[in-house]
Amino acid sequence: MKTLEYVLVYFGILILLNQTNENILANDLIYKSQVKKKIENCQKIHSCKYFLRFVDIYDEMPTIYIITPTYLRETQMADLTRLRNTLLLVPKIVWIIVEDSLEKSDKISSFAMESNLNIVHLAEKTLKLEKPSKYSAHKGVEQRNRGIYWIKEKQPQNAIVYFADDDNSYSLKLFEDIRSVKKIGVWPVALVGGLKYEAPICNNDKVVDWFYAYNQRRYVPTDMASFAINVQLLYQFDDSYFERFTKSDLEGSFLKRLNIKVADFEPKAEVCSKIHVWHTRTMLVKIRKGEIVERKI
Amino acid sequence: MKTLEYVLVYFGILILLNQTNENILANDLIYKSQVKKKIENCQKIHSCKYFLRFVDIYDEMPTIYIITPTYLRETQMADLTRLRNTLLLVPKIVWIIVEDSLEKSDKISSFAMESNLNIVHLAEKTLKLEKPSKYSAHKGVEQRNRGIYWIKEKQPQNAIVYFADDDNSYSLKLFEDIRSVKKIGVWPVALVGGLKYEAPICNNDKVVDWFYAYNQRRYVPTDMASFAINVQLLYQFDDSYFERFTKSDLEGSFLKRLNIKVADFEPKAEVCSKIHVWHTRTMLVKIRKGEIVERKI
C-alpha cells in the first residue's frame, strides 16, 4: 500500500511539474515569438534597423550637444522641421535651440514640446552694437554664446559640442564622425566660401593644409559647420566664446581662444574626402501684399 | 527495498526536473532582462520610441509611394540628403526617385544604394518641346509621369501616392495624414503662390473653398505638395498622367483627369488648420571662377 501511495504521489507530482514546465515553455515560446515579430517588423522600418546598432553601445557613447541659433522669418519652421527630422535620427543628443529674441516664443516652445527630442530652449537677443571699422559683424554670436554658457553651467562630461545652423543640410554620417571626436574633429563643408566645398587637405591622416578661397588671413579657414570640439575645451578656457566682431574670422578667432593648433585637427569624413554637410541657404520668400483671393471651387 | 528505490528514483527525477525548471526560468530571466535592456536603450533613442507605435499595425498599413523628380545642380545632394533623412522616419514607403537625364547617374545610384530605404531609381529626360502660346510649361512632368508609369506596371494594391519635390520641407505628421487617405487627401502648403500658405477651407469637416491667390482659373487651386491619392485612381484612368503644358494648372488638370470632385476631398492636417509641408526653395549658389587659393596653415 505504501508503495502504491509513493507511486501515486510520485506520478501526481510528476504531472504537476510537467505542466508547470510546459506552461513555462509555452509562455516562453509565445513571448519569444511576440518579441521576434516585433523585431521583424522593427527591422522592416528603416530607421529601427539603423538604430539597432546603437542599442548595445548606448551607455558608452558621448552625448552630442548641438547648438543652433535661430531667428524669426517665414522659412524658420520649415528649416527647423527639416533639422528636427535629421536630429531625430541621431541618438544621444541634446539640442540647444537659441532664439534671437528677448523671450522664448510660443511657436518654438510648442515645436520643442512636441519634438520627442531632448531640447534645451533658450532666448538671447542680439545686441545693437556699433561695428568697429575694419571689422565684420557676425550673426548668431550671442545665441551660440548663450548655448556655450548653458553648457558651462551644466558641466556635462562625456560630451562633444557642434554648432549647427538651422538651414544647413546634414548627412547622418556627420554625426557618426562627431561622435568619434577626441579633441577637435574637422571635415569638408560644401557650398561655402564661394566654392563647391572648403576642406582640410590631409597627408597620412593628418591635416596639412586647407582648401578654400575666402579671406586668407583667417587663423584657420574653417566654416562653423566644419568642426566639433570636446566639451572639456570649453571648461579649460574662460573666454571660450565667439566674438561679435572679428576681421572676417569668426571661427578662427574662436579656435585660437581654445589654443587649437593644426596638429590637433582630427580629420573625419574618410580623411576629408567626403561631403557630409552642406552650407545651404533657404530662399526667403516674397509674400504678396494686398487683397487675397478667395472663391468657391 | 522497493519503496526505497521508488523514493530514490522519485527524488532523483524531482531534482533533475527542478534543475531543468530552474534553467528554463534562469534563461528566461536573462533573456527577458536582455530584451528589456535593449528596449530601454531603444526607448532612449528618440526615433525608436517614435517607431514602436507602428510595429504592431505594420502589416495593415498601406504603402506610401513617393515620387520625387530631381535634376543635377550644386544643391541636389544637399536637398536629397535632407529629404532622405525625413523619409528614413516614415515607415513602409517606396521612394521613386526619377532623374531628369537619359541615364541614371552614378551619384544618385550610390545615394540610393547606401540609403537603407526602399528606393526605385529611374531616369527620364525632359523632352525639348515647343510651348504652345497661352500655355505654360511645367517642370518635373516627364519624371513624375515615369514614376506613375512604373506604378501602373507594378500594380501595388494597398497604396497611396504622393508627389514630393526634393527641396520642399516635410513634417512627419504629413505622412501620418497621407497614410490615412481613402481617395484623395488635401491640406495646406506653406510658402506657395506668393502667400504664407495656400489651404483648403473647411466647413463641418468638408472642403468648401480654397484660400489662394495665384491663377483663379485653375480646376483646383492646389499645389503638388498639397494632395495624395489612392493608387487605384491611377489604374481607373488611362490618361492619369501630368500634362507638360497647361494653362498654369498642372495640378488641377491632373486631378480633372482623375475625375476628382470637391466632394472627394478628405481634409487632413487637423481639418486643414496646420502646416505640415513647406514649399521651400534652396538658394542656388554661385561658385567662384578662376584661381583657387591654397596655403599652408
TrEMBL record, chains A, B:
Cofactors, names only: Mn(2+)
One GO CC term on file: Golgi membrane
Subcellular location: Golgi apparatus membrane; Membrane
Enzyme Commission numbers on file: 2.4.1.135
Residues engaged in binding Mn(2+): D167
InterPro entries in UniProt: Glyco_trans_43, Nucleotide-diphossugar_trans
Signal peptide coordinates: none
Pathway, per record: Protein modification; protein glycosylation
GO molecular function: galactosylgalactosylxylosylprotein 3-beta-glucuronosyltransferase activity; metal ion binding
Keywords recorded for this protein, A-Z: Glycoprotein, Glycosyltransferase, Golgi apparatus, Manganese, Membrane, Metal-binding, Signal-anchor, Transferase, Transmembrane, Transmembrane helix
Main location per the UniProt record: Golgi
Positions annotated as active site in the UniProt record: E251 (proton donor/acceptor)
One GO BP annotation of this record: carbohydrate metabolic process
Record has Manganese as a keyword: yes
Reactions the enzyme catalyzes: 3-O-(beta-D-galactosyl-(1->3)-beta-D-galactosyl-(1->4)-beta-D-xylosyl)-L-seryl-[protein] + UDP-alpha-D-glucuronate = 3-O-(beta-D-GlcA-(1->3)-beta-D-Gal-(1->3)-beta-D-Gal-(1->4)-beta-D-Xyl)-L-seryl-[protein] + UDP + H(+)
UniProt membrane topology term: Single-pass type II membrane protein
Family: Belongs to the glycosyltransferase 43 family.
Name listed for the protein in its UniProt record: Galactosylgalactosylxylosylprotein 3-beta-glucuronosyltransferase
Organism: Brachionus plicatilis
